[in-house]
Structures are given as C-alpha cells and as structure tokens.
Amino acid sequence: MALITDPRSVPVLGTDTHLPPVPAERLQPDALRERFRHPPADWQPELAAEPRLYDRPPVPAAVLVPIVLREQPTVLLTQRTAHLRAHAGQISFPGGRSEPQDADAAATALREAEEETGLDRRHVEVIGTMPPYTTVTAFVVTPVVALVRPGFELRPDPFEVDEVFEVPLAFLMQPAHHRRHVFEFEGGRREFLSMPWPHEDGGAGRHRYFIWGATAAMLRNLYRFLML
User: Fold this and answer.
1) Is residue 7 part of a domain?
2) How many domains is the chain partitioned into structurally?
3) Residue 16 pLDDT more than 70?
4) What's residue 160's pLDDT?
5) What is the pLDDT of residue 55?
6) Which residues contact 156 (CB under 8 A, 6 or more apart)?
7) Residue 50 maps to a domain
8) Which of 54, 58, 99, 109 is in the most buried spot, having the most CB atoms within 10 Å?
9) What pLDDT sits at residue 143?
10) Is 200 a residue whose pLDDT tops 60?
11) Mean pLDDT computed over 159-171
12) pLDDT over 60 (residue 45)
C-alpha cells in the first residue's frame, strides 16, 4: 500500500448529504458529559483501522479531542510542521505515543497536548475516551475527548506545530461536510474521509484547512457516537 502524499488530489467519490447532522442540543457540555457517562451499549466505531503501511509492532498512542466551550463549541486542532518525519504538514489532534510514566491514555493525551500546544491541563476536563484507531504507521491511537474552558493561553512548540486553530464542532458533526475519497495504486485501494474547513484569514484570502485521514476518521466516529 502506497503512502498518500497529496490527499487533495485524490478523487472525491461523494459526500454524505443523506445523513442528518448531530442536533445542536447534543453538542452542548451537559449533553456531551451525559453521553460519555452513559454510552450506547451496542455502539461500534464506523472506522477502526487503516491499511498497514509498515510491518512493525503496534505503538500505543493517544490524542486529545479538545472541545472548546465557546458560545458555539469548537474543536481545537493543530497543523504539524512540514519537516517532521511522520505525518508532516497534516492537521491533527494534539497527541503522540504513550510513555512508560503515563498512567493511561488520558495522561498521554494531556501530557502531549501540553507539550505540543502549551494547553494547561487546569483548563481541561476529560469526559471520556473513544475506541482506538490504528493508523497506516501502526500507531494504535486512543482518542481522549475533553471539554476545554476558555481563557487558556497557548504556546505551540515551533518544532512540531506550525499552527493551532479551531473549527466549529457543528461543522464537523454534519456529514454533508464529510467527503469520501478513493486512492488506487498498483492494484491496491484505500478509501478515506476529508472535512476541508473554509476559513477567512484576516482579509488575506479564503483558504481551507484540509482535515483528512486518521483525524477525519476519529471525528466521523465521534459523529456516530453522538447520533445514537
């Protein structure tokens, strides 16, 4: 299976306009807390793994899915710097591989988020976890969902993080914005989702943050979890 280096150029099969968005009331803090306290008994993630690109042992990891409690909740995301060996330039949740000192996935996610973005854990309320997602690079990633109180100050690590930005949670929880792609290479086939986010950049012109791959898959799983 070949590595996808330019996902923007991969053909779009369609969007999921036939699926309803998550109702606005389910995106509020109390409703999110309640859903994680009492998850659906029969729920399974829609997307669990990508085709393996490397033959190596699985690497435990965790990411923080930070839902910022604005008037309309947002999701905080990072754009990785272009020189990194893994997932360079991609949009991702803050996070990384687990270390021996981490008590659990939440500890990994909080530590990594603080190291990458400077997000102080005093502003963060972990409300639950999602099932692990396995990437092409054999990272077994546990998404740790958290509510973040405004008032935090970020200090992104310039080596790892090119930019930190926020996307409305309602935008990401609307399947009409979920685009399906198919990538074919030497007889192989891989499908993935993207959720390009349009953003007005201070009058400098309209551009998109191209959310795709593992990040988009985990967001899609969150959509399914909140819709049941």
Assistant:
1) no
2) 1
3) yes
4) 85
5) 79
6) 78, 116, 117, 118, 163, 164
7) yes
8) 109
9) 98
10) no
11) 93
12) yes
SS3 of the chain: CCCCCCHHHCCEEEECCCCCCCCHHHHCHHHHHHHHHCCCCCCCCCCCECCCCCCCCCEEEEEEEEEECCCCCEEEEEEECCCCCCCCCCEECCEEECCCCCCCHHHHHHHHHHHHHCCCHHHEEEEEECCCEECCCCEEEEEEEEEECCCCCCCCCCCCEEEEEEEEHHHHCCHHHCEEEEEEECCEEEEEEECCEEEECCCCCEEEECCEHHHHHHHHHHHHHHHC
Residue 9 lies in a domain: no
Region 92-120: mean pLDDT is 96
Residue 149's domain comprises 19-227
Residue pair 107/187 in contact by the 8 Å Cβ criterion: no
User: Is 1 part of any domain?
Assistant: no
Q: How many CB atoms lie within 10 A of CB 164?
A: 17
Q: Give the separation between CA 178 and CA 14, rounded to whole angstroms.
A: 9
Q: Could you give the CA distance from residue 155 to residue 117 in angstroms, rounded to a whole number?
A: 5
Closest CA to 156 of 62, 79, 70: 79
pLDDT computed for residue 201 by the predictor: 55
Q: CATH number, domain at 189?
A: 3.90.79.10
Token pair in block for residue 220: 């899609």
How many angstroms separate the first and last alpha carbons of the chain?
A: 34
> Residue 22: left (phi > 0), alpha (psi -120 to 50), or beta?
beta
pLDDT of residue 83 exceeding 60, the answer is: no
